């Protein structure tokens, strides 16, 4: 509580300004006797923290209850769908992709319920009912990923010292500005983002004299920080027709499930285990693109997918791949993978990616090829596949399939498991033949090595027999000069030492 002198000083200051202040209005609304701050809705700091803590615990409890209820609904829906579709399962790739897409869409919808305004209608209604008593405003905390990216961005800009402080101020100002421009069209927001990238890069180069390589790295971090926070507002917004385009492309790819690699002239043989692994990795990368938030990370997924394609072509052809081989293979990968929200991801990258990265380098090249692949799929016709219009129409309607017909071997009543088993037996027989061929070649190689060894040994023996080795006796050693061979050498006898008696 304030002392009498402190209240007197407050009254004197107010009287000087011509304002009459009632001391009861200065006290905390909770009645603790401390001064209440108008910014905290009339509470003192201690009471405001208590109220905030109570409201926050209540909100957490409501979120937990909502999560448990949604989890139960999810399990019940999944159990019912499993029981209803258990007798009609299909092993084809298109059915598997459709089931996976539906499962992912259902999970995404469930997660979105936590963050949409409709899911919190009950909580907000309860808060409005309790609005008679003042309560602090509560905002949902940012997601874990957003917090992580923010911490990484702050740690990064600390290495730039004063330029880093300037970057952080510019980013905060941009985020505050964009929060008041939600009603703008997505094209106008894209222009704001592109102008912001250009201004920050120019500011680093002209004002702070930062080297180009450090500018590029700083712009990558700026893009990561900005777009992680703006992702839920600018990715596939409701004001655009991106979602309709996604559904149209997905439906188109499903209708083209019958397209074979031979029709697209794809130089990839999936019978080779290494090539098959590369194809699976490429499909995984192109599907993983939808889970990223930053345009640069989405471009990285496209780049990894493209490199796996190049490796698959190189292994198949035993030579480096060319651009003419890459684009048909990329089209085949897109048809086989059917990535979710493909058009939305392309539009998001085009609108909000750093232009210096998108217009240059291998990321920009691979992204351009992906756009060409999607455009080709949208306009794919009979002439593109060297088919007649009648065959193309029959394939699109599902009347017939260009794939290998199995009616000669199996009856229509045979289940897919038996067909797959027979295919596996055929593959095992082929592998057995290949193994026997390898074993015979190995035995032949062993025989050749033995024959070569015997031949070399025989040749050496013939040469030794033709040119025998003669070992001559040792020559007689010369006599020593001081030997006693007087007759032959006519030399006097050696001197004998003489002893003199002294």
TrEMBL record:
Task: Specify the VPS9 domain's residue ranges.
Answer: 243-386
Q: Which UniProt keywords apply?
A: Acetylation, Cytoplasm, Endocytosis, Endosome, Metal-binding, Phosphoprotein, Protein transport, Transport, Ubl conjugation, Ubl conjugation pathway, Zinc, Zinc-finger
Q: Does the keyword Transport apply?
A: yes
Identify the PROSITE patterns for this entry.
Answer: VPS9, ZF_A20
- Region Disordered: start and end of each range? 75-96, 125-144, 483-502
UniProt-listed InterPro entries: DUF5601, VPS9, Vps9-like, VPS9_dom_sf, Znf_A20
List, as start-end ranges, the regions of compositional bias called Low complexity: 78-94
This chain belongs to the protein called: Rab5 GDP/GTP exchange factor
The A20-type domain covers 22-56
Q: Which domain of life is it from?
A: Eukaryota
GO MF entry, a single one: DNA binding
PANTHER family per the record?
Answer: RAB GDP/GTP EXCHANGE FACTOR (PTHR23101), RAB5 GDP_GTP EXCHANGE FACTOR (PTHR23101:SF126)
Q: SMART domains, alphabetically?
A: VPS9, ZnF_A20
Which cellular components does GO assign to this protein? cytosol; early endosome; endocytic vesicle; recycling endosome
Q: What Gene3D superfamilies does the database record attribute to this sequence?
A: 1.10.246.120, 1.20.5.4770, VPS9 domain
| Organism phylogeny | Eukaryota, Metazoa, Chordata, Craniata, Vertebrata
Does this UniProt record's set of keywords contain Metal-binding?
A: yes
């Amino acid at each position: 509580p304030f002392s009498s002198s402190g209240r007197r000083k407050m009254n004197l200051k107010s009287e000087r300004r011509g304002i009459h202040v009632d001391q009861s209005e200065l006290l905390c609304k909770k009645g603790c006797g401390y001064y209440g701050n108008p910014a905290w809705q009339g509470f003192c700091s201690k009471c405001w923290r208590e109220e905030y803590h109570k409201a926050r615990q209540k909100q957490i409890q409501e979120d937990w209850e909502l999560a448990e209820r949604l989890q139960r609904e999810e399990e019940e829906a999944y159990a019912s769908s499993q029981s209803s579709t258990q007798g009609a399962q299909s092993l084809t790739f298109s059915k598997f992709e459709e089931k996976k897409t539906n499962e992912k869409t259902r999970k995404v919808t469930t997660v979105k319920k936590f963050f949409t305004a409709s899911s919190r209608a009950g909580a907000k209604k309860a808060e409005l009912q309790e609005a008679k008593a003042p309560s602090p405003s509560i905002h949902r905390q940012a997601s874990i990923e957003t917090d992580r990216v923010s911490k990484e961005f702050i740690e990064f800009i600390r290495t730039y010292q004063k330029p880093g402080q300037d970057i952080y101020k510019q980013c905060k100002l941009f985020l505050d500005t964009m929060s008041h421009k939600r009603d703008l069209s997505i094209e106008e927001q894209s222009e704001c983002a592109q102008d912001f990238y250009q201004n920050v890069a120019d500011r680093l180069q002209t004002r702070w004299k930062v080297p180009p390589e450090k500018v590029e790295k700083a712009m990558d971090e700026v893009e990561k920080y900005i777009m992680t926070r703006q992702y839920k507002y600018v990715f596939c917004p409701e004001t655009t027709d991106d979602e309709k385009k996604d559904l149209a492309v997905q439906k188109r790819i499903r209708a083209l499930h019958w397209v074979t690699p031979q029709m697209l002239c794809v130089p990839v043989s999936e019978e080779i285990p290494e090539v098959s692994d590369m194809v699976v990795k490429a499909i995984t990368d192109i599907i993983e693109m939808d889970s990223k938030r930053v345009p640069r990370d989405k471009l990285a997924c496209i780049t990894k997918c493209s490199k796996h394609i190049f490796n698959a072509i190189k292994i198949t052809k035993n030579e480096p791949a060319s651009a003419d081989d890459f684009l048909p293979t990329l089209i085949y990968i897109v048809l086989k993978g059917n990535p979710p929200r493909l058009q939305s991801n392309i539009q998001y990258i085009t609108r909000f990616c750093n232009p210096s990265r998108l217009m240059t380098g291998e990321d920009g090249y691979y992204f351009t090829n992906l756009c060409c692949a999607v455009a080709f799929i949208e306009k794919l016709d009979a002439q593109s596949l060297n088919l007649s219009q009648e065959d193309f129409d029959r394939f699109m309607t599902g009347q017939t399939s260009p794939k290998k017909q199995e009616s000669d071997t199996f009856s229509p009543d045979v289940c897919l498991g038996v067909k797959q088993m027979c295919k596996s037996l055929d593959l095992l027989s082929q592998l057995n033949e290949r193994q026997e061929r390898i074993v015979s070649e190995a035995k032949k190689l062993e025989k050749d090595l033995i024959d070569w060894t015997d031949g070399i040994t025989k040749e050496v023996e013939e040469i030794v027999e033709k040119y025998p080795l003669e070992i001559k006796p040792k020559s007689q050693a010369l006599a020593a000069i001081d030997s006693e061979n007087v007759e032959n050498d006519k030399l006097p006898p050696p001197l004998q030492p003489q002893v003199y008696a002294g």
